[in-house]
Amino acid sequence: MSEYSKLEAQYKDKECLLEALAEMGYASEQVEQHEIAAQMYDYHGHATHYVNADGDKANLIIRRQNVQNANGGRGSATNDLGFVKEGNGMYAPIVSDYDSHKHGSKWMVDLKVKYQVAVNKKEAKRQRFVQKSSKIEGRKLVIRYLQP
Amino acid sequence: MAKEIVIEIDLDTAEMTLETLGFQGKGCAQVHEGFARANGKATSVVRKPEFNAPAIAQNRLKQRG
Q1: What is the count of structural domains for chain B?
Q2: Integer angstrom CA distances of residue B26 from A25, B1, B19, B51, B64
Q3: Which of A32, B12, B22, B36 could connect to A61 by a Cys-Cys bridge, CB 3.0–4.6 Å?
Q4: B5 and A144 in contact by Cβ < 8 A?
């Protein structure tokens, strides 16, 4: 099933979102960037209209040939994966039902963690803090910054 | 005491908390505000007794004046 769903917008900083996507296996050259949201396509190459009657559109798009499938490969029988910029400036993921096996809630949490790491690193640098340590304690990633 | 920020991100939920150490007064709030703004929403804020230290001193000065 190729139906798309739009999830809660959680990403404000495009640069950090691209950095997080790269950490998740989608290098920046695999992510199309569109100032004006562009059409998304399903695995048949057909334009989709699940989220938006005028066509499912996104500002950041990973085309289906680059989308990782549940078996770890790329492209076969997958649909475009996108992030649409909302009116509030936040990016919301648009994921097809089919690809939610690979890009489901666990993948979204991992992406969010990597996004937060990138955002906090950028903000810490802006506030002139330097990273002292980063380690996993139990089920938490603990990052310490010092102001020299 | 050096100023330190400790960020904890839950790997199962991506919930984030931020703790500041060695700050007093508004400097602590400014750090929190910066990170909250960068993250696009409020992080969990736990204020410690140090947060009010300069404010109390300032109030006392005002009362004396």
Answers
A1: 1
A2: 40, 17, 14, 7, 22
A3: A32
A4: yes
Compare all CA atoms of chain B with the CA of A147 and give the residue at the minimum distance.
B3
Each residue's pLDDT tens digit, A38-93: 999 998 899 988 888 899 999 999 999 999 877 777 766 689 999 999 998 999 99
What is the tens place of the pLDDT at every residue in A116-143?
999 999 999 999 999 999 999 999 999 9
CB distance A94 to A58 below 8 Å: yes
Q: Which residue has the tokens 């937060």?
A: A116
Q: How far apart are CA A121 and CA B35, in angstroms?
A: 10
The ipTM of this complex is: 0.87
Residue numbers of the domain that contains A128: 4-146
User: Which residue type is seen at A64?
Assistant: R
Amino acid found at A52: N
Overall domain count for chain A? 1
A146, β-bridge pairs: A130, B4
Distance (Å) of CA B53 to CA B18, B28, B58, B59 = 20, 11, 9, 10
Q: Looking up tokens 């959680």, which residue turns up?
A: A10
Give the 3-state DSSP-derived string for A52-93, with helices as H, strands as E and coil as C: CCCCCEEEEEECHHHCECCCCCECCCCCCEEEEECCCCCEEE
Range of the domain at B13: 4-64
Is B11 within 8 Å of A139 when comparing Cβ atoms? yes
